[in-house]
UniProtKB/TrEMBL annotation:
<keyword id="KW-0238">DNA-binding</keyword>
<dbReference type="InterPro" id="IPR005733">
    <property type="entry name" value="TopoI_bac-type"/>
</dbReference>
<comment type="function">
    <text>Releases the supercoiling and torsional tension of DNA, which is introduced during the DNA replication and transcription, by transiently cleaving and rejoining one strand of the DNA duplex. Introduces a single-strand break via transesterification at a target site in duplex DNA. The scissile phosphodiester is attacked by the catalytic tyrosine of the enzyme, resulting in the formation of a DNA-(5'-phosphotyrosyl)-enzyme intermediate and the expulsion of a 3'-OH DNA strand. The free DNA strand then undergoes passage around the unbroken strand, thus removing DNA supercoils.</text>
</comment>
<comment type="subunit">
    <text>Monomer.</text>
</comment>
<keyword id="KW-0413">Isomerase</keyword>
<dbReference type="InterPro" id="IPR013825">
    <property type="entry name" value="Topo_IA_cen_sub2"/>
</dbReference>
<keyword id="KW-0460">Magnesium</keyword>
<feature type="site" description="Interaction with DNA">
    <location>
        <position position="33"/>
    </location>
</feature>
<keyword id="KW-0479">Metal-binding</keyword>
<dbReference type="Pfam" id="PF13368">
    <property type="entry name" value="Toprim_C_rpt"/>
</dbReference>
<dbReference type="GO" id="GO:0003917">
    <property type="term" value="F:DNA topoisomerase type I (single strand cut, ATP-independent) activity"/>
</dbReference>
<feature type="domain" description="Topo IA-type catalytic">
    <location>
        <begin position="129"/>
        <end position="573"/>
    </location>
</feature>
<feature type="site" description="Interaction with DNA">
    <location>
        <position position="139"/>
    </location>
</feature>
<feature type="site" description="Interaction with DNA">
    <location>
        <position position="140"/>
    </location>
</feature>
<dbReference type="InterPro" id="IPR025589">
    <property type="entry name" value="Toprim_C_rpt"/>
</dbReference>
<dbReference type="InterPro" id="IPR006171">
    <property type="entry name" value="TOPRIM_dom"/>
</dbReference>
<dbReference type="InterPro" id="IPR000380">
    <property type="entry name" value="Topo_IA"/>
</dbReference>
Amino acid sequence: MAKNLVIVESPAKAKTIEGYLGKDFIVKSSFGHVRDLPTKGDKVIDVDNDFTPTYVVSADKTQVISELKKLAKSCEEVWLATDDDREGEAISWHLKEALNLKDNTKRIVFREITKSAILKAIEQPRAIDMDLVNAQQARRIMDRLIGFELSPVLWSKVQKGLSAGRVQSVAVRLIVEREKEIEQHASIATFKVSALFDLPGKKVLKAELAKNFAKEGDALEFLKKCVGATFSIKSLETKPAKKTPAPPFTTSTLQQEASRKLGYAVATTMSIAQKLYESGRISYMRTDSTMLSQEARDKAKAAIESNYGEKFHHARQFKTKSDSAQEAHEAIRPTDFGMSTLSGDSRERKLYELIWKRSIASQMSDALLERTTAQIEISTTTEVLVAQGEVIAFEGFLKAYLEGKDDEDEDENKDMLPPLSVGQVLQLDELKAQERFSRAAPRYTEASLVKALEEKGIGRPSTYAPTISTIIKRAYVEKEDRAGKERTYQTWTLKDDEIAGVKATEIVGAEKSKLFPTHIGTLVTDFLVENFQEVVDYTFTAEMENEFDHIAQGKLPWVKLMKDFYGSFHKTIEDSKSIARSSVGGGRELGVDPETGKKISVRLGKFGPFVQLGESGEEDKPVFANLAKHHSIATLSLEDAIALLARPKLPREIGILDDKPVVIGAGKLGPYIKYDGKFTSLPEPNDPFTIELDQAVLVMQAALKAAESAGLGYFEDQLIETGKGRFGPYVKHNGKYISLGKTDNLTSLTQERAIELILAKRNAEANKMIKEFPENAAIKVVNGMYGPYIQIGKRNVKIPKDQDPASLTLEDCIALGDAAPAPKKTTRKK
């Protein structure tokens, strides 16, 4: 038996680390947290006794703890090697308590899983940092108290099954307020003037007027003045400029950039980064520091000089903006700068290359530019047209990487201007005044929401991904694509001294992977803002994060923070008992129906908001109609409600096609077309209550064409389709639906990955083995109807979600079998 037991959180991490340590060390996993606050009980948190928490070993960790206890007793030394952050420190403390280890048990930390980092950590053990543990405890206990006491208020005043949280409710508020801002935005039209000039050598010069015209008449008058005018270069100004690289990735900037450049959801990015960290490829992925160690900068320098040359290197140390960032920690970076790419999984490779490029670029020279501005005078007016362009004199860091932008219209790389001279007369091709419209602030993507939370100081690197996952899972927010709407705009063009006007249409407001608040999300937010302002206040939530930091730094006792918070919070909970439910989503009377004389109200029901005509006590049963997506309980008018009640009922048959009915219906995921046993989503702006057969046929044809051109193509002569269903995103092949894995998303799904999922589903249905162990070993890994499991003789052991069944070794299976709860004994009733 080994002399030393090292305990980490994940089996993948354990496997990597054990390879670096000698035969005197055995490395085991706790499979994450081992203790937590129980979900039920009166004294889970004893608020009258300094908020003393009661922790219990999680039901699925009893065997893990039992096995670790045996190993700890048989080893001379135990090393707690969980992650180097508050959560990791808390796991180490819970392990110490659950395993009855000594107070001086050795705690080791490292920010990358490399042999040198592990051996260095072994040489520099420390004790468990109780300040970090208490910071995590304070956060956990506060969040539990808010959830325990506030959620029942929502059940009684709004709707059963709802929940509230210190960070999640603030995140939903951001999305709700952005949606209201968009709804209230009144678009203002202006006319933007642009010009094209023909130059020798078939070159074209583009220029714009520095201002927009507020009125169409003014724009037209300007064009009239330009009829027969002479256009010439009034001035040329060239200035040197430079661009500086962005700092290395923090957790939030990695999430934002992976979303912009790779299309990854925040949770997907963190899952892939976790795998890269545990396999020793990158440093720890939860950090708000932009610092690089001297060793990392030296390695980056060697890689830059090798790949690009000496002149491309420029040493930098970025200062972290966040006051709470731990400067001893590093930014996310490769552990080996000499490795610019990886083999194997394509998603891991893409994310690794993004991290490598960003880290390398941060230590490269500035890009040197020349920016030229040309002013073009018009002989018949004092207005001046401006043409701008830039040329790269020295690429510098742009040779490796350029940071993405959230604003799609932001032009980072201006066109290079053709050769020009002062006084040069220009030949006008056309001068155009085009109607443009002001835009509301954009809806949040996952990445831009993370950015907003970070800027407001809400949450920390470890909380962004779970917060977003929680608000989507609880149906306060929807992440989806939405079709745009058609809009007409006016253009006036001066060409060959003739002015002509034309009206055209454009599609505006199309959304891709944006976050939309649901009706219930909006209602809960309005209720919390009105009655529990402190809980959803941006400043309060940010200040609370700072208080947790002060606890972690040993500057503030955690019990004092809890006492200061709980007094006023609990009083607000008690005061909320007087809130009338009828004032909160219980119903709002809109008026009387002019035809029947019955009351019309809008209410919130189990399946969402609806309009009700009549009351339940009347002779005739009430009539109901669901609200459309763009309606709101708070703003719905009587006229809107009457129109909703007048719509035909769904499902409705709209015609016959090839002797088969075409039916329009509505489900949890929105309206659909049902034909020949197949369902096609009915996208906006199609109205399920008015659409006719010919338009429905076009929608079905467009859906089939879109599926064919989605890049997934055919497999075994059958089209691979994708979509979102009741249980999440899926791949459809040969009539069968296959749910995507946790780290998959429709945006970045490839044909190769889709085929993997199809084959895995096929194997599962056939109950085929994923992996078979050495001959005579009575252990198999099987993919069953309810997921993968280990078959040990006649006993089945479920494989944890964070485990890859295909990579399990015989030793892993034995360990999981030992850690699993013993099967319950059953007795037959006589």
